[in-house]
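User: ok so my PI wants both of these folded by tonight, can you help

Assistant: No problem, let's get them done. Here's the first:
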Amino acid sequence: MEYTEHIEGQELLELVPQRPPMLMVDQFLGISDGVSWSGLTVRPDNVFCTGGVFAAPGIVEHMAQSAAARAGYSFRKDGCPVPLGFVASIEKMHFSGSLPRPGDSLRTSVEVVADIFGMSLVHAVCWRGEEVLAEGDMKIYLDTERDEKA
């Protein structure tokens, strides 16, 4: 897979509202053919690492922040402020394979399935190499009116 972008560090922090220690993406790799890609290298001091593995809730948070990075990237590209987003629901989440360990690199794809009235239905897949670790759907509400209220 050839990625269209490579955003990390301070520039990545402009796409998502999370900050360390709750930041679960360390790269945004762009959008190609309607699918965005982001990444995370699991560090041993990650708040979701316990017993030598990156726990399933950390994978879900990584997937949600991957969707946030996609939205932030799209809004910034259009010259708009990055809205806050809220996960309204998580559905059909399926985990397979073993949990990641510190040092493992995760890649997550996010595809918007539907977008209506500030609510997005996204399908996310989290990979470790060629292995799918988790896959599921999330409904995400974007508060695009926040800046208008201020």
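One down. Here's the second:
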Amino acid sequence: MIRSISIAPICLTGLAALALAGCDSAGEGPAQETAASDMQTTAPPPPPQLHGQIVRAFAGTELPKLTFEDPRGNVLDLGVLDEPVLINMWATWCVPCVVEMPQLDTLAGELEGEMRVLTISQDVRGAEVVTPFFDSRNFKHLEQWLDPQTSLSVAFAAGGVLPMTILFDADGREVLRVTGAYEWDSEEAIVQVREALVELDTDNAS
């Protein structure tokens, strides 16, 4: 088995207070002026490191029978899913969540036909912020499901940590999860998820 990297919870959710404490909170105090020359020479900050770790400690946890809508009113019923799904809980204000979204898109394309990737936004403003986010990006495989009541975070994200990503089998039982951001388009991620899917097929056949 390939070595997993160390875990570090990155972003807090929760409603208004946690949004302020999250990735894009604005500070108070007098504005600082920056010379134009400084702006030209200052390099942009590096993206946050993705320290999530795949764990199986919660294997067997059942997927709640919840329903969600996308901005067009289409309905996703978790209770009737009959295929493996990787559910990602994220928010537009969470920087690590945003960083890993293109990687999840790549993973969804790589494993198309083997499992389905469901990105379910925990933004309380719903489509108001999620739709512009998707419109500004060229995702080819991700779906815009909305959870403005943050019901998934209540069920799974103890302490309000985002992002959180969980793989469920076709019977709605948890296989593995990652708390915090993860390099989902890495060889490590693809191998581990694919190995888990093969294990599921083997178990179902026995």
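Confidence is low (pLDDT under 50) at residues 1-41. The chain is about 30% helix and 20% strand. Good luck tonight!
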